[in-house]
Amino acid sequence: MNYTFSDNISSVKPSAIREILKMVAANPSIISLSTGSPSNEAIPVEEIHEICEKIFRERPIEALQYSMTEGYPALRETTKKRLHEVFGIDPENNDVIITTGGQQGLYLTPEVLVNRGDTVICESPSFVSGIIAMKTCGANVVGVEMDDEGIRLDKLEEAIRTEKNVKLLYLIPTFQNPRGSTMSLQRRKDVYELCVKNNIIILEDNPYGELRFRGEDIPTIKSMDTEGIVVYNGSYSKVLSAGMRIGFVCAPKPIIQKEIIAKQGGDCHSNIFFQIVVDEFFRHYDVDAHIRKIRGIYRDKCDFMLDCLDKYLDKRVTWTHPDGGLFLWCSLPEGYDSLDFARKAAEKGVAFVPGCSFMVKDDEPCPAFRLNYSTPSKENIERGIKILAEAVDEYLK
Ligand SMILES: Cc1ncc(COP(=O)(O)O)c(C=O)c1O
Prior knowledge:
Blueprint: H1 7-10, H2 16-26, E1 31-32, H3 45-58, H4 60-64, H5 73-87, E2 94-100, H6 101-113, E3 119-124, H7 128-136, E4 140-147, E5 150-151, H8 153-162, E6 166-171, H9 185-197, E7 201-205, E8 230-235, E9 246-252, H10 253-264, H11 272-284, H12 287-312, E10 318-319, E11 327-331, H13 338-348, E12 350-351, E13 353-354, E14 368-372, H14 378-396
Parallel strand pairs: 1-12, 3-4, 3-6, 6-7, 7-8
Antiparallel strand pairs: 2-9, 4-5, 8-9, 10-11, 11-14, 13-14
Helix pairs in contact: 2-13, 3-11, 5-11, 6-7, 6-10, 12-14, 13-14
Bound molecules: pyridoxal-5'-phosphate.
Pyridoxal-5'-phosphate (PLP) is lined by residues 36, 101-103, 127, 130, 172, 177, 205, 207, 235, 237, 242, 247.
Protein backbone atom coordinates (compact mmCIF):
# COMPACT_ATOMS: atom_id res chain seq x y z
CA MET A 1 0.00 0.00 0.00
CA ASN A 2 1.24 3.46 -0.89
CA TYR A 3 0.08 5.70 1.93
CA THR A 4 -0.60 9.34 1.13
CA PHE A 5 -0.78 11.50 4.20
CA SER A 6 -2.60 14.77 4.80
CA ASP A 7 -0.80 18.03 4.02
CA ASN A 8 -1.14 19.03 7.69
CA ILE A 9 0.74 16.05 9.10
CA SER A 10 3.20 16.01 6.21
CA SER A 11 4.30 19.53 7.15
CA VAL A 12 5.55 18.26 10.53
CA LYS A 13 8.91 16.51 10.67
CA PRO A 14 10.02 14.30 13.58
CA SER A 15 11.96 16.50 15.98
CA ALA A 16 15.68 16.26 16.80
CA ILE A 17 14.57 15.76 20.42
CA ARG A 18 13.48 12.20 19.47
CA GLU A 19 16.94 11.24 18.34
CA ILE A 20 18.42 12.28 21.70
CA LEU A 21 15.62 10.61 23.69
CA LYS A 22 16.19 7.36 21.74
CA MET A 23 19.86 7.43 22.74
CA VAL A 24 18.85 7.89 26.39
CA ALA A 25 16.29 5.07 26.20
CA ALA A 26 18.83 2.71 24.64
CA ASN A 27 21.47 3.47 27.25
CA PRO A 28 20.20 3.96 30.82
CA SER A 29 23.67 4.95 32.04
CA ILE A 30 23.36 8.27 30.15
CA ILE A 31 22.48 11.04 32.59
CA SER A 32 19.43 12.80 31.27
CA LEU A 33 19.14 16.55 31.66
CA SER A 34 16.70 16.46 28.77
CA THR A 35 13.20 15.83 30.12
CA GLY A 36 10.43 18.34 30.72
CA SER A 37 8.96 16.40 33.61
CA PRO A 38 8.23 17.67 37.09
CA SER A 39 10.31 16.30 39.93
CA ASN A 40 9.16 12.94 41.34
CA GLU A 41 9.36 14.40 44.87
CA ALA A 42 6.94 17.16 43.84
CA ILE A 43 4.04 14.73 43.34
CA PRO A 44 1.89 14.44 46.52
CA VAL A 45 1.51 10.66 46.29
CA GLU A 46 0.06 10.05 49.79
CA GLU A 47 -2.62 12.69 49.38
CA ILE A 48 -3.58 11.41 45.92
CA HIS A 49 -3.79 7.86 47.30
CA GLU A 50 -6.14 9.03 50.07
CA ILE A 51 -8.35 10.88 47.58
CA CYS A 52 -8.56 7.85 45.26
CA GLU A 53 -9.70 5.63 48.15
CA LYS A 54 -12.31 8.19 49.12
CA ILE A 55 -13.65 8.35 45.56
CA PHE A 56 -13.95 4.54 45.37
CA ARG A 57 -15.72 4.50 48.74
CA GLU A 58 -18.12 7.35 48.13
CA ARG A 59 -18.83 7.75 44.39
CA PRO A 60 -17.21 5.09 42.20
CA ILE A 61 -19.81 5.21 39.44
CA GLU A 62 -19.61 8.97 38.96
CA ALA A 63 -15.84 8.60 38.57
CA LEU A 64 -16.01 5.64 36.20
CA GLN A 65 -18.89 6.60 33.88
CA TYR A 66 -18.97 8.93 30.88
CA SER A 67 -19.00 12.59 31.81
CA MET A 68 -19.42 16.05 30.30
CA THR A 69 -17.19 17.32 27.47
CA GLU A 70 -16.63 20.74 29.09
CA GLY A 71 -15.36 19.09 32.25
CA TYR A 72 -16.39 18.15 35.78
CA PRO A 73 -18.48 21.14 36.92
CA ALA A 74 -16.87 21.37 40.37
CA LEU A 75 -13.37 21.43 38.86
CA ARG A 76 -14.39 24.11 36.36
CA GLU A 77 -15.51 26.24 39.31
CA THR A 78 -12.38 25.47 41.35
CA THR A 79 -10.22 26.37 38.34
CA LYS A 80 -12.06 29.65 37.71
CA LYS A 81 -11.76 30.61 41.37
CA ARG A 82 -8.02 29.89 41.45
CA LEU A 83 -7.44 31.76 38.18
CA HIS A 84 -9.19 34.74 39.71
CA GLU A 85 -7.38 34.61 43.07
CA VAL A 86 -3.87 33.75 41.88
CA PHE A 87 -3.69 35.20 38.36
CA GLY A 88 -6.23 38.05 38.50
CA ILE A 89 -8.36 36.63 35.69
CA ASP A 90 -11.90 37.99 35.36
CA PRO A 91 -14.36 35.16 36.14
CA GLU A 92 -17.40 36.99 34.76
CA ASN A 93 -16.47 37.35 31.09
CA ASN A 94 -14.56 34.11 30.75
CA ASP A 95 -15.39 30.44 30.89
CA VAL A 96 -13.30 27.31 31.45
CA ILE A 97 -13.07 24.00 29.61
CA ILE A 98 -11.13 21.14 31.22
CA THR A 99 -8.70 19.58 28.74
CA THR A 100 -6.53 16.50 28.47
CA GLY A 101 -3.36 18.16 29.70
CA GLY A 102 -2.41 21.69 28.75
CA GLN A 103 -1.31 20.10 25.49
CA GLN A 104 -4.87 19.60 24.27
CA GLY A 105 -5.60 23.32 24.61
CA LEU A 106 -2.67 24.06 22.32
CA TYR A 107 -4.48 22.05 19.69
CA LEU A 108 -8.08 23.12 20.39
CA THR A 109 -7.38 26.87 20.24
CA PRO A 110 -5.83 26.95 16.74
CA GLU A 111 -8.34 24.32 15.64
CA VAL A 112 -11.26 26.68 16.34
CA LEU A 113 -9.57 29.97 15.34
CA VAL A 114 -7.16 29.29 12.51
CA ASN A 115 -7.85 28.32 8.90
CA ARG A 116 -5.37 26.36 6.81
CA GLY A 117 -2.63 28.77 5.69
CA ASP A 118 -3.38 31.44 8.32
CA THR A 119 -0.34 32.48 10.31
CA VAL A 120 0.38 31.68 13.93
CA ILE A 121 3.33 33.61 15.36
CA CYS A 122 5.27 32.13 18.23
CA GLU A 123 8.42 32.95 20.17
CA SER A 124 11.63 31.59 18.75
CA PRO A 125 12.56 29.30 20.47
CA SER A 126 9.22 27.87 21.64
CA PHE A 127 7.65 24.72 23.11
CA VAL A 128 8.13 21.99 20.51
CA SER A 129 4.76 20.24 21.06
CA GLY A 130 3.03 23.62 20.82
CA ILE A 131 4.63 24.20 17.42
CA ILE A 132 3.56 20.69 16.33
CA ALA A 133 -0.03 21.33 17.49
CA MET A 134 -0.25 24.55 15.44
CA LYS A 135 1.26 22.92 12.37
CA THR A 136 -1.08 19.92 12.50
CA CYS A 137 -3.96 22.42 12.48
CA GLY A 138 -2.66 23.62 9.11
CA ALA A 139 -1.20 26.90 10.37
CA ASN A 140 1.72 28.71 8.79
CA VAL A 141 3.84 28.89 11.95
CA VAL A 142 6.37 31.72 12.14
CA GLY A 143 8.93 32.13 14.91
CA VAL A 144 9.91 35.61 16.14
CA GLU A 145 13.20 36.29 17.92
CA MET A 146 13.34 36.99 21.65
CA ASP A 147 15.51 39.24 23.79
CA ASP A 148 15.87 39.43 27.58
CA GLU A 149 12.40 40.97 27.96
CA GLY A 150 10.56 38.43 25.79
CA ILE A 151 9.39 38.39 22.16
CA ARG A 152 10.95 41.33 20.26
CA LEU A 153 8.37 43.99 19.52
CA ASP A 154 10.04 45.34 16.35
CA LYS A 155 10.31 41.83 14.88
CA LEU A 156 6.75 41.04 15.93
CA GLU A 157 5.44 44.18 14.19
CA GLU A 158 7.37 43.21 11.08
CA ALA A 159 5.95 39.67 11.08
CA ILE A 160 2.41 41.00 11.53
CA ARG A 161 2.97 43.32 8.57
CA THR A 162 4.54 40.77 6.24
CA GLU A 163 2.99 37.38 7.05
CA LYS A 164 -0.32 36.26 5.61
CA ASN A 165 -3.42 36.62 7.77
CA VAL A 166 -1.92 36.54 11.25
CA LYS A 167 -4.61 35.10 13.53
CA LEU A 168 -2.88 33.94 16.66
CA LEU A 169 0.16 34.84 18.75
CA TYR A 170 1.37 31.90 20.87
CA LEU A 171 3.36 33.02 23.93
CA ILE A 172 4.79 31.39 27.05
CA PRO A 173 5.47 34.60 28.99
CA THR A 174 6.41 33.08 32.35
CA PHE A 175 9.38 30.71 32.79
CA GLN A 176 9.36 30.06 29.11
CA ASN A 177 10.01 26.59 27.71
CA PRO A 178 12.83 26.24 26.67
CA ARG A 179 14.59 29.44 27.83
CA GLY A 180 13.31 29.53 31.42
CA SER A 181 13.02 33.33 31.00
CA THR A 182 10.10 35.63 31.83
CA MET A 183 8.57 38.44 29.76
CA SER A 184 8.74 41.87 31.40
CA LEU A 185 5.56 43.71 32.41
CA GLN A 186 6.17 46.49 29.88
CA ARG A 187 6.65 43.98 27.04
CA ARG A 188 3.40 42.22 28.03
CA LYS A 189 1.54 45.53 27.86
CA ASP A 190 3.11 46.48 24.52
CA VAL A 191 2.39 43.09 22.96
CA TYR A 192 -1.20 43.21 24.21
CA GLU A 193 -1.75 46.69 22.70
CA LEU A 194 -0.25 45.61 19.39
CA CYS A 195 -2.53 42.57 19.23
CA VAL A 196 -5.63 44.62 20.08
CA LYS A 197 -4.71 47.01 17.27
CA ASN A 198 -4.26 44.19 14.77
CA ASN A 199 -7.16 41.90 15.82
CA ILE A 200 -4.85 39.09 16.82
CA ILE A 201 -5.77 36.59 19.51
CA ILE A 202 -3.04 35.88 22.09
CA LEU A 203 -2.70 32.31 23.30
CA GLU A 204 -1.01 32.74 26.69
CA ASP A 205 0.39 29.39 27.80
CA ASN A 206 1.21 29.35 31.50
CA PRO A 207 1.90 25.84 32.81
CA TYR A 208 4.80 27.04 35.01
CA GLY A 209 3.16 30.17 36.44
CA GLU A 210 2.86 28.77 39.99
CA LEU A 211 6.50 27.66 40.09
CA ARG A 212 8.11 31.00 40.94
CA PHE A 213 10.90 30.50 43.48
CA ARG A 214 12.50 33.96 43.31
CA GLY A 215 11.41 37.53 42.70
CA GLU A 216 8.04 39.16 42.26
CA ASP A 217 5.10 37.80 40.26
CA ILE A 218 4.39 39.60 36.99
CA PRO A 219 0.70 39.90 36.02
CA THR A 220 -0.54 37.51 33.35
CA ILE A 221 -1.48 39.04 30.00
CA LYS A 222 -4.92 37.54 30.53
CA SER A 223 -5.37 39.66 33.67
CA MET A 224 -5.05 42.79 31.43
CA ASP A 225 -7.56 41.50 28.91
CA THR A 226 -10.39 44.03 28.74
CA GLU A 227 -11.01 43.34 25.04
CA GLY A 228 -11.48 39.54 25.16
CA ILE A 229 -8.47 38.76 22.95
CA VAL A 230 -6.53 36.46 25.29
CA VAL A 231 -6.99 32.69 25.51
CA TYR A 232 -5.28 31.41 28.66
CA ASN A 233 -3.89 27.87 28.57
CA GLY A 234 -3.20 26.14 31.89
CA SER A 235 -2.27 22.79 33.34
CA TYR A 236 -2.31 20.77 36.54
CA SER A 237 0.69 18.74 35.30
CA LYS A 238 3.38 20.85 36.92
CA VAL A 239 1.63 21.56 40.21
CA LEU A 240 0.08 18.15 40.88
CA SER A 241 0.71 15.27 38.47
CA ALA A 242 1.61 15.15 34.78
CA GLY A 243 0.32 11.58 34.30
CA MET A 244 -3.24 12.56 35.23
CA ARG A 245 -3.32 14.62 32.01
CA ILE A 246 -5.58 17.38 33.34
CA GLY A 247 -5.32 20.93 31.97
CA PHE A 248 -7.70 23.73 31.07
CA VAL A 249 -8.41 26.66 28.78
CA CYS A 250 -9.90 29.90 30.10
CA ALA A 251 -11.28 32.22 27.43
CA PRO A 252 -14.27 34.36 26.46
CA LYS A 253 -17.41 32.25 26.40
CA PRO A 254 -17.89 32.11 22.58
CA ILE A 255 -14.40 30.62 22.17
CA ILE A 256 -14.99 28.03 24.91
CA GLN A 257 -18.30 27.04 23.26
CA LYS A 258 -16.44 26.23 20.03
CA GLU A 259 -13.68 24.39 21.89
CA ILE A 260 -16.30 22.19 23.56
CA ILE A 261 -17.54 21.12 20.11
CA ALA A 262 -13.99 20.47 18.89
CA LYS A 263 -13.15 18.46 22.03
CA GLN A 264 -16.31 16.37 21.66
CA GLY A 265 -14.97 15.18 18.33
CA GLY A 266 -11.51 14.66 19.83
CA ASP A 267 -11.76 12.70 23.07
CA CYS A 268 -15.34 13.21 24.32
CA HIS A 269 -14.09 14.31 27.76
CA SER A 270 -10.93 14.27 29.87
CA ASN A 271 -10.40 11.48 32.41
CA ILE A 272 -13.22 12.07 34.90
CA PHE A 273 -11.61 10.07 37.72
CA PHE A 274 -8.58 12.34 37.73
CA GLN A 275 -10.67 15.49 37.28
CA ILE A 276 -12.36 14.58 40.58
CA VAL A 277 -8.96 13.86 42.17
CA VAL A 278 -7.66 17.30 41.16
CA ASP A 279 -10.80 19.01 42.42
CA GLU A 280 -10.68 17.19 45.79
CA PHE A 281 -7.02 18.13 46.21
CA PHE A 282 -7.64 21.81 45.55
CA ARG A 283 -10.74 21.90 47.78
CA HIS A 284 -9.63 19.88 50.79
CA TYR A 285 -5.84 19.98 51.07
CA ASP A 286 -3.35 22.71 51.94
CA VAL A 287 -2.55 23.77 48.39
CA ASP A 288 -0.47 26.78 49.45
CA ALA A 289 1.78 24.57 51.59
CA HIS A 290 2.13 22.13 48.69
CA ILE A 291 3.06 24.91 46.25
CA ARG A 292 5.58 26.32 48.76
CA LYS A 293 7.12 22.87 49.06
CA ILE A 294 7.51 22.31 45.31
CA ARG A 295 8.88 25.82 44.78
CA GLY A 296 11.48 24.98 47.42
CA ILE A 297 12.41 21.76 45.58
CA TYR A 298 12.89 23.61 42.28
CA ARG A 299 14.81 26.52 43.85
CA ASP A 300 17.17 24.08 45.52
CA LYS A 301 17.79 22.06 42.35
CA CYS A 302 18.08 25.11 40.12
CA ASP A 303 20.62 26.74 42.46
CA PHE A 304 22.56 23.50 42.67
CA MET A 305 22.76 23.23 38.87
CA LEU A 306 23.81 26.90 38.62
CA ASP A 307 26.58 26.29 41.19
CA CYS A 308 27.80 23.25 39.22
CA LEU A 309 27.81 25.25 35.99
CA ASP A 310 29.82 28.01 37.70
CA LYS A 311 32.25 25.49 39.08
CA TYR A 312 32.87 23.28 36.05
CA LEU A 313 31.91 24.99 32.79
CA ASP A 314 34.12 26.92 30.40
CA LYS A 315 33.26 30.63 30.64
CA ARG A 316 32.74 30.84 26.89
CA VAL A 317 29.43 29.06 27.52
CA THR A 318 26.69 31.28 28.99
CA TRP A 319 23.44 30.36 30.71
CA THR A 320 20.24 31.95 32.02
CA HIS A 321 19.38 32.35 35.73
CA PRO A 322 15.67 31.46 35.97
CA ASP A 323 13.35 32.73 38.71
CA GLY A 324 11.07 29.69 38.39
CA GLY A 325 10.03 26.78 36.20
CA LEU A 326 12.10 23.77 35.23
CA PHE A 327 14.70 24.86 32.68
CA LEU A 328 17.74 26.88 31.93
CA TRP A 329 19.13 27.78 28.55
CA CYS A 330 22.84 27.49 27.75
CA SER A 331 24.60 28.98 24.76
CA LEU A 332 27.79 27.86 23.08
CA PRO A 333 29.69 30.66 21.36
CA GLU A 334 28.17 31.84 18.04
CA GLY A 335 28.90 29.57 15.09
CA TYR A 336 28.72 26.29 17.04
CA ASP A 337 25.89 23.83 16.49
CA SER A 338 24.28 22.37 19.61
CA LEU A 339 22.76 19.40 17.72
CA ASP A 340 26.19 18.16 16.72
CA PHE A 341 27.40 18.90 20.25
CA ALA A 342 24.40 17.07 21.80
CA ARG A 343 25.23 13.90 19.84
CA LYS A 344 28.84 14.01 21.05
CA ALA A 345 27.83 14.75 24.65
CA ALA A 346 25.33 11.84 24.63
CA GLU A 347 28.15 9.52 23.52
CA LYS A 348 30.13 10.73 26.57
CA GLY A 349 27.13 10.08 28.87
CA VAL A 350 24.98 13.21 29.24
CA ALA A 351 21.83 14.16 27.32
CA PHE A 352 20.12 17.52 26.87
CA VAL A 353 17.93 19.03 24.18
CA PRO A 354 19.60 20.98 21.36
CA GLY A 355 18.09 24.38 20.61
CA CYS A 356 17.12 23.55 17.02
CA SER A 357 14.36 21.27 18.44
CA PHE A 358 12.55 24.38 19.65
CA MET A 359 12.74 26.30 16.39
CA VAL A 360 10.01 26.47 13.79
CA LYS A 361 12.66 25.85 11.16
CA ASP A 362 14.59 23.14 12.94
CA ASP A 363 17.16 22.55 10.20
CA GLU A 364 19.07 25.76 11.00
CA PRO A 365 22.05 25.37 13.36
CA CYS A 366 21.52 26.78 16.84
CA PRO A 367 24.30 27.29 19.40
CA ALA A 368 21.97 27.05 22.43
CA PHE A 369 20.55 24.04 24.30
CA ARG A 370 18.11 23.37 27.16
CA LEU A 371 19.01 21.86 30.52
CA ASN A 372 16.40 20.49 32.92
CA TYR A 373 17.05 20.52 36.66
CA SER A 374 13.73 19.21 38.01
CA THR A 375 14.10 15.51 37.25
CA PRO A 376 17.72 14.43 37.95
CA SER A 377 18.95 13.87 41.50
CA LYS A 378 21.58 16.31 42.79
CA GLU A 379 24.17 13.59 42.42
CA ASN A 380 23.25 13.19 38.76
CA ILE A 381 23.11 16.95 38.20
CA GLU A 382 26.72 17.21 39.37
CA ARG A 383 27.89 14.15 37.40
CA GLY A 384 25.98 15.35 34.34
CA ILE A 385 27.46 18.85 34.45
CA LYS A 386 30.97 17.46 34.92
CA ILE A 387 30.55 15.33 31.77
CA LEU A 388 29.01 18.31 29.98
CA ALA A 389 32.03 20.41 30.93
CA GLU A 390 34.43 17.77 29.55
CA ALA A 391 32.37 17.58 26.35
CA VAL A 392 32.48 21.40 26.04
CA ASP A 393 36.26 21.43 26.50
CA GLU A 394 36.71 18.85 23.73
CA TYR A 395 34.17 20.50 21.48
CA LEU A 396 35.49 24.06 21.74
CA LYS A 397 39.11 23.01 21.33
C1 LIG B 1 5.02 25.45 27.56
C2 LIG B 1 4.23 24.20 27.76
N1 LIG B 1 2.92 24.21 27.46
C3 LIG B 1 2.16 23.13 27.63
C4 LIG B 1 2.69 21.96 28.12
C5 LIG B 1 1.79 20.77 28.21
O1 LIG B 1 1.67 20.31 29.50
P1 LIG B 1 0.68 19.14 29.86
O2 LIG B 1 0.02 18.64 28.63
O3 LIG B 1 1.52 18.10 30.52
O4 LIG B 1 -0.29 19.74 30.80
C6 LIG B 1 4.04 21.90 28.45
C7 LIG B 1 4.64 20.65 28.94
O5 LIG B 1 5.80 20.48 29.12
C8 LIG B 1 4.84 23.05 28.27
O6 LIG B 1 6.14 23.08 28.55
